[in-house]
Amino acid sequence: MKLSHLIIREQDDQGIIQCLLNDRKRIILKFDKKYIEYAQSTFDGFLILMLVVAMKEEEDIEINGVISRKLYHQIKKHLMPIIKTVHPTYSIVDIIVEGFSDEIYDNNAVACGLSCGVDSLSCLEDHYFQKKELTHVTNFYAGAYSVKDTYHNKMKNIHSFVDKTELELFIVDTNFHLINNFEHQYFHTLRNLAIPLFFQKLFKKYYYGSSFSYRDSKMIPNSGSITSCEPILIPHLSTENLSIEMHGCQYTRVKKTQLLMHNPFSYNHLDVCVHPTYYDNTDKKLNCSKCFKCLRTLCTLDYLGYMDKYEHVFDFEIYKKHKHNYLVKLEKTNPYDRELFQLFYEYNPIIEDYLLNSQATFDDSQNLPNVFHEVLFSDSQLNHNFHARRLKENIWYALKDEWTLIDSGRIQAKKNCIIRNKLPIIPDEKQRKEKEKNTILLLQEIQDQDDFYCTFIC
Question: What is the percentage of the chain residues whose pLDDT exceeds 70?
Answer without folding.
Answer: 84
